[in-house]
Amino acid sequence: MGQVSWKGLFLSLFDYKTEKYVIAKNKKVGILYRVVQLSILAYLVGWVFVVKKGYQDTDTSLQSSVITKLKGVAFTNTSELGERLWDVADYVIPPQGENVFFVMTNLIVTPNQRQTTCPEVGRTESFGSQTPPKLGSASIPDARCSEDEDCPAGQAVVAGNGVKTGRCLKDRDSIRGSCEVLAWCPVEKRSKPKKPLLASAENFTVYIKNSIRFPKFKFSKMNVLATNESYLKTCRYSTEHPYCPIFLLGNIVRWAGNDFQEMALEGGVIGIQIEWNCDLDKAPSECNPHYSFSRLDNKFAESSVSSGYNFRFAKYYRDAEGIEYRTLFKAYGIRFDVMVNGKAGKFNIIPTVINIGSGLALMGAGAFFCDLVLLYLIKKSNFYRGKKYEEVKSSSRKSLTSPTLNGNQSPDQLGGL
Questions:
Q1: Which of its termini does the chain have fewer beta carbons within 10 Å around, N or C?
Q2: Domain harbouring 401, CATH code
Q3: CA torsion angle for 312, 313, 317, 318 (degrees, to 10)?
Q4: Does residue 198 belong to any structural domain of this protein?
Q5: Is 8 domain-assigned?
Q6: Are residues 67 and 153 in the same domain?
Q7: Is residue 195 situated within a structural domain?
Q8: Which domain, by its residues, includes 172?
């Protein structure tokens, strides 16, 4: 008996089992099945292969290099600096342009500073004057004082310019005054500019040279066409000239949705986005850069200290007596961030087979869904369930030796089932 069981088990390894298909004459379920099939087919062909190009292998590890160069001059005449001509060496920081560059559009100048003592708020008219200086409003809370004890010597002024000397300087007939500090005096002017100094920077131009490479496909390209130099000297970027890499600063700010003169007053940050989406199944000339522009700083926080963009720098010199002086500059301007991204795609059999297999699997899921509707959700579900699933029970050996089974099947025929 045991040998027979093992033999039957061994022989069953060579049996082939197939599914039993039942054709259900139900128009509602049939229409539902075709709708599901068409939907999956439309998704596979339309979205996966046409829109997402699922037949392609992609490379998103874009390698990029950006070089920028500005041109333009401006003339100013101020009480602090007098008549002055500004060129790229003056208003571009840093001078070697990369993917981030700053163009100065406004300036607060505090000339002739030297290290001595002066009030933290307000300024003396002459160094070494024995008369108390005229003080402004104490805009720095840590510099306010009523007596010398409020200004402990050696303590730095929070958000100030120097170190307290221990003296409280007051105006005549004034109760409150300002602490005296050891600092670069006179201290920096705190008045905000009323109009941009370099308003003509709107007409400055920037040359943006971008080279990209997709290492997986060994494909390289630039946003500059091989053309004569006269074209680059006269062209300006526009939708009609997409391969002219020379941009007017005023146009960049306007395309970002802002007014240049308003932004130049206190500065800001502009993002220049260069996007390369290349279908390498097409000609290389079809791989083109697409530019977009946006403002990155919080332009709505007009009353906030975080609005705008500025920083300080100084130029140092000595007089004939060897005393060191400096001119302090608080520079306002627009910082431009050039950001490059993109991807490239090319036909590959592996993603094609994977996406086709996924589509066939979805077809099977659609048939499974329609089976659920047919067998459980319609009125005649019990009838269809009985036709789809056939229940077979094991019989005793005695019944197997009988001439017939159920009046129709012989033992050999049952074994064939």
A1: N
A2: 1.10.287.940
A3: 40
A4: no
A5: no
A6: no
A7: no
A8: 121-185
Residue 204's φ and ψ, nearest 5 degrees, are -70, 155
Angle at CA of residue 288, ends 283 and 252, nearest 5°: 170
Task: Tell me how far apart the alpha carbons of residues 407 and 277 are, in angstroms, rounded to a whole number.
Answer: 73
Q: Assess contact for 376 and 106: CB atoms under 8 A.
A: no
DSSP string for residues in 96-113: S--SEEEEEEEEEEEEEE
pLDDT tens across 361-387, in order? 888 888 888 888 887 877 777 777 767
Distance, CA of 18 to CA of 130 (rounded, Å): 110
Residue type, 44: L
Q: What are the residue ranges of helices labelled H in 260-404?
A: 260-266, 349-372, 381-388, 397-400
- Last residue of some domain: 346, 380, 408? 346
pTM of the model: 0.74
Number of independent structural domains in the chain: 3
98 and 131 in one domain?
no
- Report the CATH number at residue 317: 2.60.490.10
Pairing of strands 324-347, 268-279: parallel
For residue 7, being part of any structural domain is answered with no
Query: Are 115 and 183 spatial neighbours (Cβ–Cβ below 8 Å)?
Result: yes
Beta bridge partners of 333: 104
Tell me, yes or no, whether 279 and 228 share the same domain. Answer: yes
> Among candidates 407, 339, 315, which has minimal Cα distance to 110?
315
> Are 366 and 309 members of one domain?
no
Pair (212, 316) in one structural domain = yes
pLDDT, one tens digit per residue, over 29-43 is: 888 888 888 998 999
Going by pLDDT thresholds of 50, 70 and 90, the confidence category of residue 134 is very low
Q: Which residue has the tokens 């302090």?
A: 328
How many CB atoms within 10 Å of residue 202?
20
Instruction: Return the closest-CA partner of residue 280 out of 214, 213, 223, 346.
Output: 346
Q: State the greatest distance between any 2 C-alpha atoms of the chain, in Å, as a whole number.
A: 135
Residues 45 and 148 in one domain: no
Give the β-pairing of 310-318 and 324-347. Answer: antiparallel
